[in-house]
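Give me the fold.
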Amino acid sequence: MKTMETKATKRIYLNLTNRCNVKCDFCCMFSEPSKNTFLSFNKYKEIIDNSECFFELQLEGGEPFLHNDFYLFIEYARFTRRCTKITISTNGILLSKHLQRLTDFCDFSKIPIVIKRSINYYLYNLDNGIFKKCRDLYLATEFIPNFKIEFNVRLRKEDNWIVEKLKEFKIYEQSRVYELQNYGRMGDDLYSKPFIVRNIDEFFLYASDGECFNEDMVKRSEYEKTLK
């Protein structure tokens, strides 16, 4: 069975939960360990079923691996036969526990999976071995078909040292490097307003309770701040 080659025209960004295992002081979703909103499977199914075209799925948080129904979600996406790619945004703390199951799913389903593993100063302060772990992660998965590791790098103005570390550990080419953006907990006019690179016809943003904000990242962020 070949990798799914049908081109999606729609991307669905789903914030699976506002709970996270860390509390980054720039989080755009106001996530933290004390939060307790989890997207229900019924609401998820409704969102997916209402998307009649081929679609890409991006699973976010909070930390998406904290959701007990995480694998039910991706299995249902496979079941529709309309999901052409699954992207998972994660801080990476739990990733090693899920890597085998994810690669097995990728091999069985032939749906490409992209892992966007975060690198930033906050995570480095929690674990100064993060660059070596990210390099080892990339090398361990480099040749797995349909499975891709990218590093989602967010910088403060003073964080050029992170770029140098990426180059030192030879993962710069696998990294998507941007400055932090001015929304969420990072309310600072020194930074630009948020944006999503438009490389698909349309996309929709969903909060952790299933509320849709179309393409408005700021409104979704402000709404997440109100959720417990």
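The chain has a mean pLDDT of 95.
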